């Protein structure tokens, strides 16, 4: 490709509000441009990298026997209401009405659509198992798009769906998908962790994420410093229940605590450690209220809490609701003398507190010497807090450490969640009708582009590995007005393309300095420069990853390049 005929608008400076390294370099090197908040155009260089990533994914999916399809982006709201995901996705859904007034969505996911498709096409166990996949644009109205392609409102994703007659078959496909995702990340040269994860709005019995460690990531991973245990902190199990003190139980006492509203205020006023204070919050789970207790140095994990309560919706009660039910403000909530129809759910660590502090459900007052069971009833003790660094690893080996990361893949054992909803049944070999068992597997393609863009760069620009580079070779004469240089450049361009190298030919009428700077920004594996020795048929070859330079005669160029690109 002649550079004068394509679109590579390199930049020397990027807007100050751009935060992520990947975002900055993709802008500088002319790979992407922002259209509106969270929406990007993928320019020719980015499109070529994306195509190579997609080809790798297609190869891995087809090796599993998966069949590529393409489902509609536009979906009726009704199927999302039927699956009960309409409210769960909430404001992330992008809506519009057609000319007939029908309410439609731009799809953020395709579980509903693919289940309905299979419901019509599969009726017998003889058609199972089946794996379908697609590569398609998804839409989610992120409240705060950030970090460029890492969290955008329009993104490219590979999603796959498997359909089975039994759980053993699902398990087999699930494990093969783990290997396929691992192979993709290995091929692009990215380190990753496979971690336990929440199934969230996709649903299902269990899920795992593929996380790339990165300080720019939004996921926080809890991992053991002595084993392979790793989990998203949203689901990491807490096994540390604290040491039960043998301290003598003191008499409950109500004391005045004027202007004390937060846990920090309580601890400062009473000279107490947060670990010996009870933090009480009022939640609304569906249409019922529940008081939730954790120690003052812990944080309630709402994902765990929702599962414990089997709630479709969960939110903190607002000030008006708290006043109506308990007669106090949020900072004064406590577990003593609650209305009889309000459940109390306590974190496991509450069992270890003795003579603690808690709100009195009366503004300006707290109780001291509070002891669970003696002073208030608890409906159940549950693991409902976030794990903390230093906690014992749930597998019994070592202690927990944290690291940030970027989720690039998420896989789910969905079971019959969607098939039961949409009556996707099959007849087994005994003639019995059963719901199809499903798996769902997502992989973020544009997010992976951001991940590799972050890894493969230096202060001058990209350093693309051979398997991902938009072109193999950057060919350039230093002086486009020099007929000898231009003639040799054209000759080499024809030779290299004949030998099936992907060549970007910088034929622009620009200075050598501009060409070199742009070549470093674009970051192709090899730069072939035609300069002062063009009359002798000698060119300079620079390897972008190492900075090594060589002078090779045009007759030996192809052999040397073949050797380079065939090497690991």
TrEMBL record:
The keyword Protein biosynthesis applies. SUPFAM superfamilies: Class II aaRS ABD-related, Class II aaRS and biotin synthetases, YbaK/ProRS associated domain. Keywords: Aminoacyl-tRNA synthetase, ATP-binding, Cytoplasm, Ligase, Nucleotide-binding, Protein biosynthesis. Its main location: cytoplasm. Signal peptide: none annotated. InterPro entries: aa-tRNA-synt_IIb, aa-tRNA-synth_II, aa-tRNA-synth_II/BPL/LPL, Anticodon-bd, Anticodon-bd_dom_sf, Pro-tRNA-ligase_IIa, Pro-tRNA-synth_IIa_bac-type, Pro-tRNA-Synthase_IIa_type1. GO terms for cellular component: cytosol. Its EC number is 6.1.1.15. GO terms for biological process: prolyl-tRNA aminoacylation. The keyword Nucleotide-binding applies. It is found in: Cytoplasm. One of its GO terms (molecular function) is transferase activity. It catalyses: tRNA(Pro) + L-proline + ATP = L-prolyl-tRNA(Pro) + AMP + diphosphate. Residues 33-465 form the Aminoacyl-transfer RNA synthetases class-II family profile domain. Homodimer. Catalyzes the attachment of proline to tRNA(Pro) in a two-step reaction: proline is first activated by ATP to form Pro-AMP and then transferred to the acceptor end of tRNA(Pro). As ProRS can inadvertently accommodate and process non-cognate amino acids such as alanine and cysteine, to avoid such errors it has two additional distinct editing activities against alanine. One activity is designated as 'pretransfer' editing and involves the tRNA(Pro)-independent hydrolysis of activated Ala-AMP. Belongs to the class-II aminoacyl-tRNA synthetase family. ProS type 1 subfamily. Consists of three domains: the N-terminal catalytic domain, the editing domain and the C-terminal anticodon-binding domain. This is Proline--tRNA ligase. It comes from Lysinibacillus telephonicus.
């Amino acid at each position: 490709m002649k550079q004068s005929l394509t679109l590579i608008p390199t930049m020397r400076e990027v807007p100050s509000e751009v935060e992520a390294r990947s975002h900055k370099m993709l802008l500088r090197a002319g790979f992407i441009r922002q259209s509106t908040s969270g929406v990007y155009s993928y320019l020719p260089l980015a499109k070529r990298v994306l195509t190579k990533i997609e080809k790798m994914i297609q190869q891995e999916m087809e090796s599993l026997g998966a069949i590529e399809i393409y489902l509609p982006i536009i979906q009726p709201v009704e199927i999302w209401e039927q699956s009960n995901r309409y409210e769960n996705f909430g404001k992330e859904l992008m809506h519009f009405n057609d000319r007939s007034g029908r309410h439609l969505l731009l799809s953020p996911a395709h579980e509903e659509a693919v289940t309905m498709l299979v419901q019509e096409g599969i009726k017998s166990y003889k058609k199972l198992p089946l794996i379908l996949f697609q590569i398609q644009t998804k839409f989610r109205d992120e409240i705060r798009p950030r970090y460029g392609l890492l969290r955008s409102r329009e993104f490219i994703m590979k999603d796959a769906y498997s359909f089975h007659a039994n759980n053993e078959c699902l398990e087999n496909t699930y494990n093969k998908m783990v290997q396929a995702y691992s192979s993709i990340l290995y091929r692009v040269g990215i380190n990753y962790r496979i971690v336990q994860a929440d199934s969230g709005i996709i649903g299902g019995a269990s899920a795992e994420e593929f996380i790339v460690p990165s300080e720019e990531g939004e996921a926080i991973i809890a991992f053991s410093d002595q084993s392979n245990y790793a989990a998203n902190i949203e689901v990491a199990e807490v096994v540390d229940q604290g040491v039960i003190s043998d301290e003598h139980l003191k008499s409950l006492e109500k004391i005045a605590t004027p202007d004390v509203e937060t846990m920090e205020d309580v601890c400062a006023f009473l000279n107490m450690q947060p670990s010996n204070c009870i933090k009480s919050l009022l939640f609304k789970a569906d249409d019922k209220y529940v008081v939730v207790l954790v120690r003052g140095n812990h944080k309630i994990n709402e994902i765990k809490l929702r599962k414990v309560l089997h709630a479709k919706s969960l939110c903190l009660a607002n000030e008006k609701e708290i006043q109506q039910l308990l007669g106090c403000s949020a900072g004064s909530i406590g577990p003593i003398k609650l209305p009889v129809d309000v459940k109390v759910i306590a974190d496991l660590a509450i069992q270890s507190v003795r003579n603690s502090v808690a709100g009195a459900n009366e503004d300006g007052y707290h109780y001291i010497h509070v002891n669970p069971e003696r002073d208030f009833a608890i409906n159940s003790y549950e693991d409902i807090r976030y794990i903390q660094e230093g906690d014992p690893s749930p597998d019994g080996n070592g202690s927990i450490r944290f690291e940030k990361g970027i989720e690039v893949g998420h896989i789910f054992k969905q079971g019959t969640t969607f098939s039961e909803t949409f009556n996707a049944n099959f007849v087994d070999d005994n003639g019995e009708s059963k719901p199809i068992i499903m798996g769902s597997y997502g992989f973020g393609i544009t997010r992976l582009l951001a991940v590799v863009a972050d890894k493969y760069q230096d202060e001058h620009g990209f350093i693309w590995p051979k398997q991902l580079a938009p072109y193999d070779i950057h060919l350039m004469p230093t002086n486009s007005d020099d007929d000898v240089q231009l003639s040799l450049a054209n000759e080499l361009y024809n030779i290299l393309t004949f030998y099936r190298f992907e060549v970007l030919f910088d034929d622009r009428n620009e200075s050598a300095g501009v060409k070199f700077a742009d070549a470093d920004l674009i970051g192709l594996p090899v730069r072939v420069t035609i300069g002062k020795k063009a009359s002798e048929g000698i060119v300079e070859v620079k390897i972008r990853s190492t900075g090594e330079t060589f002078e090779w005669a045009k007759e030996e160029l192809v052999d040397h390049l073949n050797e380079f690109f065939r090497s690991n």
